[in-house]
Amino acid sequence: MYGHEIVDLVGNVDPLKICGTWYANIQNEFGICGWILTILSYILIFFTLPISACMCIKVVQEYERAVIFRLGRLMPGGAKGP
């Protein structure tokens, strides 16, 4: 395994080498489940992003209308806007 890299001739253990080896193994072993979940996440984002963006724009327009109506009550001459 990796024991010969971690322990020196005297028997001292270098924690930096342990952490570096462990981190390198985690980085390289993504696995098939990881790839499937990543691809499904990208597909979900790809299909829901346009719908989410349209709904956000619609909500912003409704809030702008509420601000216009509120300011319209305070301004002389009534509401100015849709």
Oligomer: single chain
What's the mean pLDDT score? 66
| Beta-strand residue percentage | under 5%
Fraction in helix: over 70%
Count of helices? 3
How widely separated are the two ends?
Answer: 72 Å
Any low-confidence stretches, pLDDT <50, length ≥5?
none
Radius of gyration: 29 Å
Provide a descriptive summary of the structure in words.
The chain crosses the membrane at residues 35-60. This is G_PROTEIN_RECEP_F1_2 domain-containing protein. Keywords: Membrane, Transmembrane, Transmembrane helix. One of its GO terms (cellular component) is plasma membrane. InterPro entries: Band-7_stomatin-like. It is a single chain. With 82 residues, the protein is mostly helical. The chain has one domain (3-74). 76% of the residues lie in helices and 0% in strands. The chain has helices at residues 3-6, 15-28, 31-74.
Question: What labels describe this entry?
Answer:
82 residues; mainly alpha; elongated
Brief summary of the model shown:
It comes from Steinernema glaseri. With 82 residues, the chain is mainly α.
